[in-house]
Design brief:
- The protein is 42% helix and 16% strand.
- By secondary structure, it is an alpha/beta fold.
- The chain has three domains: 162 residues, inorganic pyrophosphatase (n-terminal core); 148 residues, no CATH class; 115 residues, Diaminopimelate Epimerase, Chain A, domain 1 (Roll).
- Strands 8-9-10-11-13-12 form a six-stranded mixed sheet. Strands 2-1-3-4-5 form a five-stranded parallel sheet. Strands 6-7 form a two-stranded antiparallel sheet.
- Helix 1 crosses helix 5 and helix 11 crosses helix 13.
- The protein binds manganese (II) ion.
- The site of manganese (II) ion has 6 residues, from loops.
Length: 464
């Protein structure tokens, strides 16, 4: 199946190359998360090598008001990355397709597919594969590689994008992503190691890494420096070496690292029944330093830049410009602080049925303005995956967004098509939405949160 995808993509690549070559003014619109930024970076490299002039814009989402604006785009070629597939069925989109060339490179679910002249829609679902096994950056990577073989050296960007979209599983990268990892390993771009998957392995003092880790929420330790110091000293792990220098996670002996893993699991056991695996693959990017040398850390950094409205800083980092490294680290700090305070808010309100609603099959969190709308998808994933929160197999988070409400849904269950359910409910309520099998997002009118919950519950029951 994967091979069918690669063969078909290779044949499409030629047509895409021609459409790019024949265009003078190229406008690129991409999603502002790590996947969108990596896809944009891969496309930018390809276009730069072709000496093309282009503009790149990053958007939170391709919503109706944005589509309206795209109708007036003056470029002769419009390229959409990491969105577009879920908007194709809209009337406004059909109008956009008239009078200009359009390329969509996406991996979200498609409601309606049709063919128009000068329109390329590249999506794994149309090529015998699934959007769960490859990200937009991954699709863009294969295209870039077919059109310019030396771009295989950027394979790591496709992994950073896939990681950002949470496509890396316990067993590692699977499906088409696995082919990308193979490319990356055989070209010595990425090396796979094993260890404790905590942000700041190489770049931070140990207690800081534990305290600031966003992938694992440890009550009393996350976001609490003295809590982290105490936690480590209780485990008998020294914070400094003989010379008085702060130790990093990468300085620990295997024995100490195992002690730490056990400590984290035990700490989290107090709040949960099923502690997640904190030990696993680490993907080291060769020839990069600091925070940019780890696929996981790089993707977190890009998400921070994008979600705080500075995706172009992330893009510069992907293109090898190190001038913004310090700025991006400051953004990361702000990003983490916002995430912790939102998680703390939810944690403190676990008992409040106005905020933390437990239904039979899902948990809904009415975040109001206590959860920043630009971070809802990250926060929803963290809550679903963190054992500190007693959730059902699906988590819905609502957050105020100017006049509207942003909805994020994440699921552990295999039996539903979350993206489709979210789109249906949102559209019934006059809003818009879509997504993947296990993740969806929507924008609805303020005040319709409970109606969303009611309809979502009904649809879940029918689709079970
Ligand atoms: Mn994506």
């Amino acid at each position: 199946m994967s091979l069918e995808f690669l063969e078909q993509l290779q044949s499409i690549a030629k047509g895409i190359d021609e459409i790019i070559s024949s265009s003078q003014r190229i406008s690129v619109f991409s999603h502002w998360d790590a996947d969108g930024i990596c896809a944009a970076a891969l496309l930018a490299k390809l276009l730069l090598e072709k000496h093309k002039v282009f503009k790149i814009h990053f958007l939170r989402q391709l919503e109706e008001d944005r589509l309206e604006k795209l109708k007036n785009e003056s470029s002769d070629l419009l390229i959409l990355l990491d969105f577009g597939s879920g908007q194709l069925h809209k009337t406004t989109f059909k109008e956009i397709l008239q009078g200009r060339k359009v390329i969509i490179i996406d991996h979200h679910q498609i409601k309606e597919q049709y063919q128009v002249q000068h329109f390329y829609h590249v999506n794994p679902y149309l090529l015998g594969a699934s959007g769960e096994e490859i990200s937009a950056a991954g699709v863009m990577y294969f295209l870039a590689k077919y059109l310019n073989p030396k771009l295989v050296k950027l394979a790591y960007l496709a992994l950073v994008g896939a990681y950002g979209d949470r496509q890396e599983r316990k067993e590692g990268f699977i499906g088409l992503n696995k082919y990308i990892l193979q490319d990356a390993e055989s070209n010595k771009v990425v090396e796979v190691k094993h260890g404790l998957r905590i942000f700041g392995r190489l770049s931070k003092p140990l207690h800081k890494a534990i305290e600031q880790c966003t992938s694992i929420f440890i009550p009393g330790v996350s976001g609490n420096e003295s809590g982290a110091v105490q936690f480590l000293s209780e485990l008998g792990i020294k914070l400094k070496d003989e010379n008085g220098n702060w130790r990093r996670l990468s300085d620990l002996s295997l024995d100490e690292e195992m002690k730490l893993v056990t400590g984290i699991i035990l700490q989290r056991l107090e709040n949960l029944s099923n502690p997640e695996d904190v030990f696993g693959n680490i993907y080291e990017i060769k020839g990069k330093e600091d925070i940019l040398s780890d696929v996981y850390e790089f993707s977190t950094l890009l998400n921070a830049c994008g979600r705080l409205g500075e995706a172009s800083i992330g893009l510069s980092l992907c293109l090898g410009d190190k001038r913004y490294l310090e700025t991006s680290k400051r953004l990361l700090q702000t990003y983490r602080k916002s995430i912790w305070s939102a998680l703390e808010f939810v944690y403190e309100n676990l008992g409040s049925s106005d905020i933390y609603v437990q239904e039979e099959r899902f948990t809904a969190i009415l975040g109001g303005d206590k959860i920043p709308y630009n971070l809802t998808s990250t926060i929803t994933s963290l809550i679903l995956n963190s054992t500190a929160f007693p959730t059902k197999e699906i988590v819905i988070v609502f957050a105020r967004m100017e006049e509207a409400v942003k909805v994020s849904v994440r699921s552990r269950a295999k039996s539903y098509n979350i993206g489709k359910l979210v789109r249906e409910v949102a559209e019934e309520l006059g809003g818009e939405g879509g997504g993947h099998l296990k993740a969806g997002g929507a924008k609805i009118e303020s005040g319709k949160e409970h109606e969303f919950i009611r309809r979502f519950k009904e649809k879940l029951e029918i689709s079970k």
